[in-house]
Amino acid sequence: MAPGRMDLHRGGTLSTAAAGPAWTRTHWAEPSGSGHNGDVTSLMPTRTITIGTRVMWAIVLVAGIALVSCGAIVWALGHSSVSADATNRLEHSRDRIRELAAEGTDPSNGRPLEDVSTVLRVHIQRTAEGPGEAELGFVGTSSDTELVWVSSDNVSFRPEKDAKLLKHVTSRAAASESVIETVRTPSSSYRVLVVPVQGGSQHGALVHVIDLKVAESQLLRTMAFYAAAAVFTVALVTGLAWFAVERLLRPIEQLRRATESIGEDDLTTRVPVRGRDDLTALAAAVNRMLDRVQTSVEAQRSLLDDVGHELRTPIAVVRGHLELTDPTDPEDVHQTQLLAIDELDRMGMLVGDLILLAKSAQSDFVTPVDTDVAELTEMVFDKSLALGERRWRLESVAFTRASIDPTRITQAWLQLVANAVKYSAPCSTVSLGSAVRDGHLLMWVGDEGIGIAPEDIDVVRQRFKRTAGAQEMASGTGLGLSIVETIVAAHGGRLDIRSKVGEGSVFTMTIPLEASPVPSSSETTTSGDAGASPPEQSPTASEE
């Protein structure tokens, strides 16, 4: 099947023969009688939206909402300002016509104003109308008025041409009180002032009209400019947001590339760490994680290599002897059998140690319980007596309680004792002890064995590593100290080694106590006191 080709299988399910983009499943019902089960799956590619795109559009959306909100506020304030300004101009016109009617003289020549019509004419002539602004004069009786005066010909706005507006203000002209109101017609919206002017039996009215559309034209131009500026701002914010987000999220992209490039053959890739922000801290944390992964993988590789080497040797030995064994010679068969059993025992011991080290990574490797350290020390000492012909010495007993795993601690302690016996001469001294110092529990084993050179102390801590002197003196897998260190580390402690070549060694397990120990009132020690520390060198021989 060609790459990416889709095939329809029985049951109405579409499948792809080659890996492609991500797909989503959709179902639809088959028509009855189609011969399918009615469930057909469609594979459709899904689209991935990056977090950078989401952040950028979120910024743009917030900026757009902010600009629209500001525009709405500006429009509302501008519209209110236009309405208030129109009202102020109308009130000013009302005060002027009333003042002129009260004085009764023409300000230009001082002649008396004979009637209402003259008052309206003089006022309209003296008024300088702005754009979209005009005045009308109505004269008549209190019950009926007619339009007499209009604004001069140089005024472009002609309110008298709006029939609906004219009809409305004509009905208002006969009123006895002034009024300021908004009148809406199909043509426009107006702010209208109607001021009655009384003169004897004659009744008149001044009508001042302001076209709000014209008054708002400046506001509309301002809003158009604002809209253009807003569009430009959004475009600018989009560009800046893309630039800023790209720089901000660059560590995440580098992190993704680094994690994708990591494989079995390359564990050295690291994320560049620049800056002091949260993403930089994340990159540093990932680098530390990669360091741990690399260390773990390299340790596993080294372990597998060492295990392969250690198992290969006894297998080769057993195979070689089996191939050379004379089946007709009972003695030769017996010797080969003993050798094979010995090598198999060694492999079994090696496998058991490796299983123990593998379990050390589990959370339940140690199970701390409240333990009587004095009782544990004496028990380990009693078990040690059977490990070899030595002068055994219990130097110190710590009468305290600690939260430790007594089984694992006993295993580690006896391992140190076994090493002391293995690498020391018969009848030499092997000492044990426990003590509390500076909030830590100390448990040690000392011997008068071959000792360890200073440059070899770090070597013996490694798995499958043994010194030349140890190899000559006794056999082993080289995992004993690794097991001890693993158990001590699981308790949050450390293994200290002090040694001198030809004089002996002291191995001390130091484990922090959760709380300060409470000494027993009956505290005694076999040798020394409960606060004793492990000796700086192997103890002086004295039989137990």
What does this molecule look like?
With 544 residues, the chain is an alpha+beta fold. The protein folds into four domains: 6-45, no CATH class; 78-217, 2-Layer Sandwich (Beta-Lactamase), CATH 3.30.450; 278-359, Helix Hairpins (Orthogonal Bundle); 369-512, Histidine kinase-like ATPase, C-terminal domain (Heat Shock Protein 90, 2-Layer Sandwich). The chain is 46% helix and 20% strand. It is built from 13 helices and 16 strands. The protein has helices spanning 51-103, 116-126, 163-173, 212-215, 217-248, 250-261, 278-324, 330-359, 373-384, 406-422, 457-460, 468-473, 480-490, and strands at residues 6-9, 13-16, 23-28, 40-45, 133-140, 145-150, 179-184, 189-199, 202-211, 369-372, 391-396, 401-404, 429-437, 440-447, 494-500, 504-512. The strands form five sheets. It has a five-stranded antiparallel sheet, with helices on both faces.
